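Weekly sync, protein design subgroup
Attendees: M.S., D.O., the rotation student, P.L. (late)

Item 1: inverse folding check
M.S. brought a backbone from last month's batch and wanted to see whether the design step gives back something sensible before we order anything. D.O. pointed out we never logged the input encoding, so this time it goes straight into the notes. Structure tokens as presented (726 positions):
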């Protein structure tokens, strides 16, 4: 128990925390009713819309067809009636600006009319709104006098009602563009990239002799890791509530070394919080499937069933909102920083990605004899080529100040992008690379279940590999390098676009090789697959991504190792990225350059905030605590000296040494902070090369002081308290 009054008070209150179990009901009969109740879903639309209107809306949602204004008017009216029945007073266009957060502007349905008020909601208000865009990052896309930004209804993502204790709002997912039509958000390129992938995949499927493959969608299932920290302790840590991560904190006596947390019994207070968050997600039609303890103390995970990439993205953003607000009700703070605690595992968001359609199924499903499955091989080859060509871009989509502390930290994938295929597939692709055909697939082994009457089940083709940033996991790829706080849009846009472009490359080569030759498709495919793999299979790596040997091997293979955000971000507007993104109609050069600028600026701001706070806490919290402790020691030393006692004098000398060290480290940091740099890129380099190392020196001295300063003088909750008290 802490002797410092603020910490003492917080801990006493945690110990007597009233439990919230019992204030809501999470039982199956309830869930049945609740699921999707706040969503204006297809079946609700079918009931409320005229047949023709419903048909054209459904066609727009499922096949990307356009809808006209008369349809929008009727949909808006039905949507409004439904929302009013459910008690909504306002509607909001929800959009996803380049801050990576969710933005919304609320307007009421009610307008004064004669005797009272009248609820209004025209098709025009559904289709388009005009929030002032001047304060959103635009990276030079427009001057502030051209502040107009438009949000446009995204019909492919269902509208929903967001309930709070006090009232409800109808939320309409939208895309956000400037008045010149340039993308100012994460949704616009996501929709464009899905269209590109659909186009390319259909073209390849047609070459495979499938004239009507139907709409092909990218699919995504994001697993979210997060920490739950007691809110009373959190609010005594300005670094946590300002930066999301601790800038100070000595290594605790107990960390995660016992490995007693992973998949352990979920603590009851946490479980109650998870259940309530899931209940809220269910109301919103978010198909949450999995919950469990993660590796670090106080770390947990939630994962949904996958959906089409666009809906999965919106649902992921909502899941984060719900987790944070429900956690607050339970006296927790939900931390989604990538590395909130040094020396303790950080949090990622594994984005599972594939592509497929209602008619053709999952196109990355290998089947039990993958060497036969030419279609799988073609699509997987396109992914391999895309990831090799655009390793840098993929790395850039997971780059941020926060994620830099996680990637390569021996618990998360390295900053080198590579693909894990597992033994069986790696073997198949190796055969294809050598000869253009694969005669057998190295059996994953068969598991005999102890009795011959049971069927022989194929074992998973290849083990799991936790060290790979991009792993094939049976019938999808899992992009593990994504940070916990990230919008999944960036990684999805990149994957959809580069894979679409690679699929088209394959199509063109196959068409060229088989031109004029009847029945030459199979030979052409084999030739092209072989050709592509010979060039790009260097990206395949099944070994240990954490090892030093891999860094050397990757360098030998010519793979990129972009260690930090300033190293990675230039890839967003590289000539290679621009060429492919323009060809696929996803983002123009101007849009890409603006994104790179925004993300670089945001990096500079993050390090700027962290370094200022490091200095502030160092000077106004830690040094004074150490000085107070020194005064006590000096007094003790005086008292004991006559009797020959030396301990206090010795302790005082230690404090003197460390406070001097801290004080000079702070001076050095402040000197670097005072330097100004013209360009954003120069500022980012200064931040990563100079400022961050100087912050680490401050921290080293401060953390050493934490280990010797009397507990009664130490105001910041310790790692022990933050990670273990709940
Ligand atoms: P784990 O990776 O822990 O083994 P699962 O295999 O259950 O977990 O899947 C993890 C995530 O991958 C889930 O969100 C799941 O819905 C998603 N997923 C499964 N199939 C696909 C797919 N075809 N496309 C995208 N995501 C998928
Ligand atoms: Mg997983």
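Designed sequence read out in the meeting:
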């Amino acid at each position: 128990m802490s002797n410092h009054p603020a910490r003492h008070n917080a801990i006493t209150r945690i110990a007597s925390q009233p439990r919230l179990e019992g204030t809501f009901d999470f039982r199956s009969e309830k869930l049945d009713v609740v699921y999707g109740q706040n969503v204006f879903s297809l079946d609700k639309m079918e009931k409320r819309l005229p047949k023709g209107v419903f048909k054209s809306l459904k066609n727009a949602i499922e096949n990307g067809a356009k809808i006209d204004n008369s349809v929008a008017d009727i949909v808006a009216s039905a949507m409004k009636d439904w929302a009013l029945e459910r008690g909504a007073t306002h509607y909001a266009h929800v959009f996803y600006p380049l801050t990576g957060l969710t933005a919304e502007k609320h307007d009421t349905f009610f307008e004064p009319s004669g005797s009272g008020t009248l609820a209004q909601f025209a098709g025009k208000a559904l289709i388009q709104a005009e929030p002032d865009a001047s304060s959103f990052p635009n990276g030079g896309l427009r001057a502030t006098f051209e502040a107009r930004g438009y949000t446009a209804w995204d019909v492919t993502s269902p509208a929903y009602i967001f309930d709070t204790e006090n009232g409800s709002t109808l939320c309409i997912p939208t895309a956000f563009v400037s008045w010149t039509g340039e993308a100012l958000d994460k949704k616009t390129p996501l929709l464009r990239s899905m269209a590109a992938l659909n186009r390319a995949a259909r073209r390849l499927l047609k070459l495979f002799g499938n004239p009507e493959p139907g709409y092909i969608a990218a699919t995504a299932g994001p697993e979210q890791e997060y920490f739950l920290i007691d809110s009373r302790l959190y609010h005594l840590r300005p670094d946590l509530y300002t930066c999301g991560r601790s800038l100070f904190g000595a290594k605790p006596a107990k960390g995660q070394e016992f490995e007693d947390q992973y998949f352990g019994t979920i603590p009851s207070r946490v479980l109650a919080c998870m259940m309530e968050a899931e209940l809220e997600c269910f109301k919103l039609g978010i198909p949450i499937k999995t919950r469990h303890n993660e590796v670090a103390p106080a770390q947990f995970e939630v994962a949904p069933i996958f959906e089409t990439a666009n809906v999965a993205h919106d649902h992921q953003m909502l899941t984060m909102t719900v987790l944070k607000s429900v956690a607050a009700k339970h006296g927790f703070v939900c931390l989604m920083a990538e590395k909130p605690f040094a020396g303790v595992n950080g949090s990622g968001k594994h984005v599972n990605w594939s592509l497929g359609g209602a008619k053709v199924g999952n196109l990355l499903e290998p089947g039990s004899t993958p060497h036969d499955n030419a279609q799988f091989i073609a699509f997987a080859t396109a992914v391999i080529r895309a990831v090799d060509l655009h390793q840098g871009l993929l790395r850039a989509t997971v780059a941020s100040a926060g994620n830099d502390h996680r990637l390569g930290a021996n618990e998360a994938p390295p900053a080198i992008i590579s693909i894990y295929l597992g033994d069986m597939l790696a073997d198949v692709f190796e055969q294809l690379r050598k000869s253009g055909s694969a005669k057998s697939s190295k059996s994953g082994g068969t598991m005999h279940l102890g009795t011959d009457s049971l069927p022989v089940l194929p074992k998973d083709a290849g083990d799991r590999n936790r060290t790979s940033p991009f792993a094939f996991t049976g019938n999808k790829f899992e992009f593990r390098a994504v940070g916990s706080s990230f919008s999944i849009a960036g990684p999805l846009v990149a994957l959809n676009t580069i894979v679409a472009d690679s699929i088209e490359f394959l199509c063109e080569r196959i068409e060229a090789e088989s031109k004029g030759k009847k029945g030459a498709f199979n030979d052409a495919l084999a030739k092209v697959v072989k050709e592509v793999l010979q060039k790009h299979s260097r990206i395949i790596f099944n070994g240990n991504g954490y090892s030093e040997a891999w860094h050397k091997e990757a360098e030998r293979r010519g793979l990129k190792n972009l260690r930090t955000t300033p190293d990675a971000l230039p890839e967003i507007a590289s000539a290679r990225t621009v060429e492919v993104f323009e060809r696929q109609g996803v983002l123009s050069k101007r849009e890409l350059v603006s994104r790179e600028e925004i993300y670089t600026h945001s990096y500079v701001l993050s390090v700027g905030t962290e370094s200022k706070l490091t200095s502030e806490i160092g000077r106004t919290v830690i040094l004074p605590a150490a000085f107070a402790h020194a005064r006590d020691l000096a007094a003790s030393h005086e008292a004991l000296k006559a009797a020959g006692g030396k301990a206090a004098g010795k302790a005082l000398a230690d404090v003197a040494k460390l406070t001097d060290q801290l004080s000079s480290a702070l001076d050095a940091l402040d000197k670097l902070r005072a330097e100004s740099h013209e360009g954003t890129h120069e500022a980012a380099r200064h931040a990563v090369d100079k400022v961050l190392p100087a912050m680490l020196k401050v921290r080293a001295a401060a953390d050493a002081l934490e280990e010797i300063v009397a507990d009664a003088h130490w105001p910041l909750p310790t790692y022990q308290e933050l990670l273990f008290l709940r």
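Discussion: The chain has 23 helices and 20 strands. The chain has three domains: 35-185, 194-602, 603-724.
Action: P.L. to compare against the previous round before Friday.
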